[in-house]
Amino acid sequence: MDVISDMFVRIQNAYRAGHETVLIPHSKLRTAIAEILEKNKFVGKAEKKGKKVRKFLEIALKYYEEVPAMSGFKRISKPSRRMYIDSKGLFAKKRSRGVSIISTSKGLMTNHEAKKARMGGEVIAEVW
Length: 128
Fold this sequence. Notes:
Layout: H1 3-17, E1 21-25, H2 28-39, E2 43-49, E3 56-61, E4 63-64, E5 67-68, E6 73-75, E7 84-85, E8 99-104, E9 107-110, H3 111-116, E10 121-127
Antiparallel strand pairs: 1-3, 2-3, 4-5, 6-10, 7-10, 8-9, 8-10
């Protein structure tokens, strides 16, 4: 099972149901993705909770006048087919608020940060 797609689907379903928070099983990768989403104002505060084996992320969802801050996502690099891009291939999203999440050798970054650092890597997902 693809844990990244599962995370995005859980967030999307919580937005559609009108929840204030969503619980997601904890991992370092999911925490890094949640931090990027938080920094780009797609979600509110993301906190790690729980102990030992039962750790989870509690992500506060953000709404603008009852409209979800994150309207959609697209998983680009999948477990069955990995997609990589170099720094020259990076581009700004068509929508002004959209970002791509890229896994580089220096950790996860948005497409804007990776282009500034002249780094390429695996394109995880696009979020708008």
